[in-house]
Specification:
By secondary structure, the protein is mostly beta strands. The protein contains 1 helix and 14 strands. The termini are far apart.
Amino acid sequence: MKIAIRFISTLVLLSSASLLRADVLLQEDWSGFRDGEAPADGWMVWSGKPEGSVGTVQVVEQGSAFGGSHAVRLQGQVEGSGAGPAVTKMFASPTAAPIVVKFDFFIPASPGAGVLPTVTLIDSTKKAGLRFNLANPFIRPNHAPVIANQSKQIDGDPITPLNFDVWYHVEIRTLPAKDGGVEKYNVSVTPFDKDPVEVDGLELSSRLDDIGGIQIGWGSANPNGAIYIANLQVEEAR
């Protein structure tokens, strides 16, 4: 009887743990990859044709200042034509529920004018919706992170002035759409070892029926510089 009770208790604990994680759509710290490897396990890498002609996408043993031991590095190459390298992952199941996106990013030096490194939420057909421009040189203060709508480059307001060679932690929370599909977003950007900068109630219409995946890359045809992303997590908002 004790064995049976213990077995049932174990099942209950396992079921509870599964339920607690059921709302996590994506969690990646890249610690399962070796230094220099391209992300795999569902990650789709684009580096041009021929491969590497617009840059590289590699896992590096360089963790975020906020924790962790690895990051993914996208290194753009100006000589390449069109958009720069990108890495994309689709969720196992798309969701229409509000979500929370968390990640750390690091840009070692100014990528120059007209360069737009981005993290983009896409729908199940890979259509771009909500974008977070990591370093936006099109508006002032120069290179300030901006949340933007679809493929627009200068839509939105600066979140906080950006310093290069500093890790930032970002949290984006989507709120239920109201008033004809206009979504609202709460955004928090935290420079390492400093207080967060928070903006609540940003209004944008992503025009997405669902959220099916995430893409890291460039929103411009000038893929210069490097992007480091670590500790990426997407979950349904509780």
